[in-house]
Request: fold
Amino acid sequence: MPEFLQFVVTGITVGMVYSLIALGFVLVWKSCGVANLALGQLTLISAWFTYAMLDPSEANLPIWLGLPLVVLFAIAMGWTIERIVLRPLIAQPILSLITVTLGISFFLEGVVTIVWPKSLARLPRLFPQQPISIGTASISYESLWTVVIALALFGLLSLYFKYHRMGIAMRATADDQLAVQACGVPVTRIFSGSWMLACVLAAFGGVLVASIGGITPGLTQTGFKAFSVVILGGLDSFLGAIVAGPIIGLAENVGGGYLAPLTWPGVRELIPFVIIIIVMFVKPYGLFGEHRIERI
Reply:
C-alpha cells in the first residue's frame, strides 16, 4: 500500500507535466490545424537554454532574470519557426506541414548536440528541497508547482479561446483558413501567436521536468508521451489534455511499478504507446475530441 500511494502521487504529478506540454500541441492544432511533432525537442532545447541562463558555470543569472529570458527565448523561437519555416506552407497539404514539423524536431536536436555537447546536466534548485508528505508518500515542490502551473495555464487558455477575439479567430482559422482570410482576419498573425504560445508552454514543461529529473536526452521522450496524452484526450481539447495527462501518468507509474519486477525494467516506457494503439481502435477522436463528419 505505501508503494501504491507513492506511485499514484508520482503518476499524477508526472502526468501533469505531460498535460502541460500537450496543451501546446492542442493550441497549435486548434489554431493552425497542424500536428506539431517537435514537442519533445522544443522541451529539450528550452531546458538546456534554462541551464545556460542559470547554471553557475554558464551565465549564472539570478532566477528573477533568467526565467523571463527563457520565456523570451521561447517566444522568439516560436516566431522564427512560424515565420521562416511554416508561413510559406500556408494552404499547402497537411502532410507537408506535418513533415516539416518532423524536420524541425531533428534540426533542434542537432542544435542541442552542437551547442551543449554534454548529454546530462542538472538545473539549479528553483524550489525548496524539503518534500511534502502525503500519508506514506512524498511530493516535491517541483511536482506541486507543476500541477498548479498546468491547471492555471489550462484555465487561462480555455478562457482565451472562448472569450477573446483572437482566441475565437484562432479556432475559426483551424476550421477554414480561406474563409477566415476572406473575412479580413490576419491569419499569419494568428499562426505566429499560436506557435509562440506553444513554445512558451513547452518551455514551462521543459523547466519543470528538468527541475524534477534533470536534463537528459530522454526529455524528447516526454514529448512523445505528451502526444499520447493528446490522442487520449482529443486533438482539439484543452480539457482532454488536462484529464488525459494524469491518466497516462498513473498508467505509466502504477503499471510500470508493478509490472517491471515481473517483466523488464523498461516496460513503463511502453505503456503510453500501448494506450495510443488501444484508443485509436476504440475511440479515435479521444475522450473529449470533436467528432467531425465530412461529406464526400
